[in-house]
Amino acid sequence: MVLAFAPTYGVAVAARLVAAAGHGVFWSVVASMAARLLGPGKGGRATAVVFAGNSVAFLFGLSVSSWLGATLGWRTAVLAVAGAAALTALVIRLTVGPMPAETSAPGPRIVADRALAPVHLTTLLLVTGHFAAFTYITALIARYVHLTGPPTSVLLLAHGTAGLLGLLIIGRHIDRHPRATALVTTAGLATCMLVLLWAPGPVAAGGAVVAWAAPAAGIGVVLQAAVLRVAKGRPDLASAVYIVAFQIGIALGAALGGLGVDHDALPAAVAIAAAGGLTSALVVWRATAFKRAEGDSPRI
Residue 280 CB: number of other CB atoms within 10 A? Predict the structure, then answer.
């Protein structure tokens, strides 16, 4: 709301910073809350549902907000987002009952927890690699698929649809086969990037761009599910640390990809994404954090 009526650039920046802080807090608790609502052994499925909602919101919200901004101005678009957020808060207040507080370990113990270290390392590797390429996806499409303008939107729509399908498949298997699902996600990202690098033509490159969405959609699910699985008694604080690692990966990936774009070396960004997928797959293969815990028997 403050952003919509910001009189100066400084006020707008301050409003964005406050919104960003709230965004980080939201993502640090939403998956653990969803897991508690669904019950034990369903953390992965709960996380998949959350990210499916995020994907649907991205597909439709981005187009609606862009239309509002183009026709009625960006302040109107911001007001619409503020109204949607207020309505969502009201619906949550009316439909989600209070939950008992969970006992969490002190912060330093969470940060230094060796059981979570492989998850944080995988997060940094995988997210950095993915966003090195994804941040500049339209430039990649122009270079490898030879599409610009409106046709790019069609390919991005196909990309988003593939992401939703990927979430459905990953959500179905993540609780029963967490390591296998994580390996498909990490190795799948690397495979799509390698195909994109060596695609024989625009059709193959376009297919790689669309297929890329499926493992990309699983990144947040497999990582968040691993956090919930390892830190059962302290999910909120552990998720907060994981979100920090995720945000660092986004920033680092965008910066590395930007260097490639600035130096006319866009394939370097794709190579970074492939390397991130391959190295994170190796961590997943060796780490017990991505193995289903004893006693977990999720219902189908």
Answer: 31
Q: At what angle do helices 235-262 and 117-134 cross, to 10 degrees?
A: 30
What average pLDDT does the segment 132-142 reach?
Answer: 93
Give the model's confidence band at 300: pLDDT under 50 very low, under 70 low, under 90 confident, else very high: very low
Distance of CA 247 to the CA centre of its chain: 10
Residue 271 has pLDDT above 90, yes or no: yes
* Ramachandran sector of residue 80 (left: φ over 0; alpha: ψ -120 to 50; beta: rest): alpha
Q: Are 65 and 77 in contact (CB under 8 A)?
A: yes
Which domains does the chain possess?
1-292 (1.20.1250.20)
- 45 vs 270 pLDDT, higher one: 270
Residue 250 has pLDDT above 90, yes or no: yes
| Per-residue pLDDT at 230 | 84
Q: Distance between alpha carbon 121 and the CA centroid of its chain, in Å?
A: 16
| Alpha carbon distance 130, 126 (integer Å) | 6
DSSP 292: P
Burial 50-79 (b: 16+ CB within 10 A, else e): bbbebbeeebeeeeebeebeeeeeeeebbb
